[in-house]
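quick one before i forget lol
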Amino acid sequence: MRSRLRIHSFPILALTALSLLFSGCGSNQPPAQQTQITTGSNEPLVISAIPDQDPEQLQRLYGKVASYLSEELGIPVEYKPVTDYTASVTAFKVGDLQLVWYGGLTGVQARLQVPGAQAIVQRDIDEKFHSVFIANTSSGISSLADLKGHTFTYGSESSTSGRLMPQYFLSKEGIAASDFKGEPGFSGSHDKTINLVTAGTFDAGVLNEQVWKSRQAEGKVDTTKVKEIHVTEAFHDYHWVLHPDTVARYGSDFAGKVQAAFTKLDPSVPEQKEILDLFGAQKFIPTSNDNYAQIEAVGLETGLIVK
């Protein structure tokens, strides 16, 4: 009888001790913080980007960004491509995307539809961004004034550097859509604009400076067939926009954590340099919604933004 009592008392004492041990460990962390971490770790952060370049280029870049952010933030991160600029804004509005790389115009459009959305970080080059007008070498075009009477293509209809700001700068030069030969085209992406002008499908076009310079450095521009004719004034452009739902999901300091993850990208670290190189930047810097007031004003003026 005494022996049986000792046998049964051991597991009871052991379980009691273990219970005290685990309850003691849990007391070091507030219950609310435990819930926050558990929730965040189970739900992936879905990122995306406007499809302004070749899809394979985008998949390569944002696949690396997703892996980097997952490691830095300690949560699953997924890249989800979208079909066009409008789709990226719609998906952000309904909460299917939580962190999106937008151009200036689409970023403003997205934030106006989602109160509390934040522009949190941009590349160093986006603080003073430019658009580049290009022309087919056989077109005889050498300046903006020469565009009159020729065929012309923008990029996407919702592109900041491929449509909104170039249209604004053309209007300042007294050039309207009616001055072109036929209606201006919309290529859909900066890479396609280069291809269409090179092929002579359009006499001239406009695209963002970073893609133009990158494709030249990669040897993908045939300078015997296409040339640069004008660089615009500077404006703010691309930036990451964060959905306000992420605060409830990952914590009140999540925007700061995402911002820090981007601004700490270091070109001396090979894996991080690759990301910066693909973005065409030396570093990322903090930004805010206020930096895109000009974009909003021009968008309202041209009717591309409607409140």
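fyi Residues 131-231 form a domain with the D-Maltodextrin-Binding Protein; domain 2 fold (CATH 3.40.190.10).
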